[in-house]
């Protein structure tokens, strides 16, 4: 996965900016200055330590971070048999994956649960940051540092929860397996290998990911909804090229590479892919519609009720925040043509980026584009790796566990499954047939989202407020 792909990672969160905060609950509790509990202190220490490893591509620091985590797990009582470290070569970069199994009590028969996080980060350059990116800094109510959100918060939260449950002597009713990848932000070599291993050796009941989802806060800090990432659109980018013999611009030929490409792009611009609705997207709009004021909220509710409602479709397609949830989109993003102002163009190339609705497929999308263009002179080249993944079910047991955990913080907060534009480890597990949902414990405003960007941060209150999140979810699912 490239950073370019990742920029859409949190589109689901951005969409929540539409929501008005109609849900009235108590605001997030600020840190009250009281001394940290032993568990809070432990989690904060792990957070500080893992952020200090610059696990970006080119640094090869993932193995050092793995050693650190292994040490933590061993000291907490996990045995060598429970811990598995695997080396991976990610396009020439040495990285590692870590798996830790919390064994079920004797006689348990329920299938395991796999829990995902990734240890690598998008790089950050100290000269560009206000504070050192690989030092945890607490300031103005925020924790600053690379991966304070994506995804060392998830790694910290899952790890500290395992250590806490172990210290309490808890025995789960099924195996719980942490699977931490080492190149999620780049090649996903470790992810793909781990997903294959999990399918062949663990065959879990389902998979929970720490790398997306979470509590969406309105700008005034009011919690709006608990978002559960349940599907990812397929990312595919094409280069469309027209070649031509060219010649002197004083002697124009009847055919012209730029005109032909422009005509093709005009057809793509005018084309709307079929509107699609699934159980997931309808339930998303049914919940989001109740939380969104005005015409937009009404359109969401009408679409949820009747996905053929043409006026609702028109309203949702006209809005950049919602158009992607209605179906496949393809849009021109780059253009290059010609080589001299006084020469006929010998080639013209456009880059077209598609976000493909689950189940449609990249091949069918490419065929559709060719069909609407209707000109064999326009050649297509797929320039991205494509991982197609189906929508996951938000299972009743998982939903009940989320309800149980969230009600302890925000009673009655709506649970909002959503589809995002793609980019987490989860898609590789979905592609193998496992229901995979992402449910971070973090609470964030859209304006606090700086994952992959400068000065990444997490509200301090959100860090501590979410530390029980996985604890209650695992108790509910495995007790
Ligand atoms: Zn991530």
Which helices and strands occur, and which strands form pairs?
Elements lengths: L2 H4 L4 H5 L22 H14 L10 H14 L7 E8 L2 E10 L10 E6 L18 E3 L2 E3 L7 H16 L8 E6 L7 H14 L3 E4 L4 E4 L5 E10 L1 E10 L3 E2 L8 H14 L8 H13 L2 H12 L4 H8 L11 E9 L5 E2 L2 E10 L5 H12 L4 E5 L13 H14 L5 E6 L5 H6 L4 E3 L4 E3 L11 E3 H6 L3 H9 L2
Helix pairs in contact: 3-5, 8-9, 9-10, 12-15
The protein binds zinc ion (ZN).
Zinc ion (ZN) binds next to loops.
In short:
By secondary structure, the chain is α/β, with parallel strands linked by helices. The chain has helices at 3-6, 11-15, 38-51, 62-75, 152-167, 189-202, 257-270, 279-291, 294-305, 310-317, 362-373, 396-409, 426-431, 460-465, 469-477; strands at residues 83-90, 93-102, 113-118, 137-139, 142-144, 176-181, 206-209, 214-217, 223-232, 234-243, 247-248, 329-337, 343-344, 347-356, 378-382, 415-420, 436-438, 443-445, 457-459. The radius of gyration is 24 Å and the shape is globular.
Structure description:
- Helix 12 (396-409) packs antiparallel against helix 15.
- This protein has a six-stranded mixed β-sheet with strand order 1-2-6-3-7-17, with helices on both faces. The protein has a four-stranded mixed β-sheet with strand order 16-9-8-18. It has a four-stranded antiparallel β-sheet with strand order 12-14-10-15, covered by helices on one side.
- The protein has helices spanning 3-6, 11-15, 38-51, 62-75, 152-167, 189-202, 257-270, 279-291, 294-305, 310-317, 362-373, 396-409, 426-431, 460-465, 469-477; strands spanning 83-90, 93-102, 113-118, 137-139, 142-144, 176-181, 206-209, 214-217, 223-232, 234-243, 247-248, 329-337, 343-344, 347-356, 378-382, 415-420, 436-438, 443-445, 457-459.
- 47% of the residues are buried.
- Residues 1-31 have low confidence and may be disordered.
- The radius of gyration is 24 Å and the shape is globular.
- The protein has 479 residues and is α/β, with parallel strands linked by helices.
- It starts with a helix and ends with a helix.
- Zinc ion binds next to loops.
């Amino acid at each position: 996965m490239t950073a370019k792909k990742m920029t859409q990672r949190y589109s689901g969160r951005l969409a929540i900016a539409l929501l008005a905060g109609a849900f009235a609950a108590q605001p997030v509790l600020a840190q009250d200055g009281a001394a940290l509990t032993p568990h809070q202190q432990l989690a904060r220490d792990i957070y500080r330590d893992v952020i200090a490893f610059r696990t970006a591509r080119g640094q090869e620091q993932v193995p050092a971070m793995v050693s650190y985590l292994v040490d933590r797990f061993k000291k907490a009582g996990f045995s060598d048999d429970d811990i598995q470290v695997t080396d991976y070569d990610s396009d020439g970069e040495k990285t590692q994956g870590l798996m830790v199994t919390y064994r079920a009590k004797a006689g348990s028969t329920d299938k395991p649960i796999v829990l995902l996080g990734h240890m690598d980060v998008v790089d950050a350059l100290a000269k560009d940051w206000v504070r050192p990116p690989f030092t945890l800094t607490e300031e103005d109510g925020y924790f600053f540092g690379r991966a304070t959100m994506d995804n060392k918060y998830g790694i910290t939260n899952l790890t500290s929860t395992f250590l806490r449950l172990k210290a309490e002597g808890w025995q789960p009713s099924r195996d719980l397996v942490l699977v931490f990848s080492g190149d999620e932000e780049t090649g996903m070599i470790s992810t793909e290998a781990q997903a294959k291993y999990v399918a062949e050796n663990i065959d879990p009941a389902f998979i929970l990911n720490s790398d997306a989802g979470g509590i969406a806060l309105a700008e005034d800090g009011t919690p709006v909804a608990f978002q559960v990432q349940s599907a990812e659109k397929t990312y595919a980018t094409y280069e469309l090229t027209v070649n031509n013999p060219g010649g002197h611009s004083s002697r124009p030929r009847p055919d012209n590479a730029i005109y032909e490409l422009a005509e093709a792009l005009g057809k793509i611009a005018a084309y709307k892919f079929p509107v699609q609705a699934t159980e997931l997207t309808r339930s998303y709009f049914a919940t989001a519609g109740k939380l969104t004021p005005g015409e937009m909220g009404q359109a969401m509710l009408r679409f949820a009720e009747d996905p053929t409602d043409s006026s609702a479709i028109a309203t949702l397609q006209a809005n950049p925040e919602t158009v992607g949830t209605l179906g496949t989109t393809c849009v021109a993003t780059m253009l290059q043509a010609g080589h001299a102002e006084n020469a006929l163009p010998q080639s013209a190339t456009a880059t077209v980026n598609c976000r493909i609705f689950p189940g449609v497929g990249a091949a069918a999308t490419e065929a559709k584009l060719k069909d609407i263009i209707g000109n064999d002179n326009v050649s297509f080249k797929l320039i991205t790796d494509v991982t197609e993944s189906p929508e996951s079910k938000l299972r009743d047991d998982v939903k009940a566990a989320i309800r149980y955990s969230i009600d302890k913080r925000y009673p009655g907060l709506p649970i909002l499954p959503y589809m995002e534009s793609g980019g987490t480890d989860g898609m590789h597990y979905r592609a193998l047939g496992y229901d995979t949902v992402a449910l971070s414990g973090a609470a964030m405003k859209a304006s606090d989202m700086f994952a992959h960007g400068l000065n990444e941060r997490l509200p301090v209150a959100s860090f501590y407020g979410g530390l029980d999140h996985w604890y209650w979810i695992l108790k509910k699912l495995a007790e």
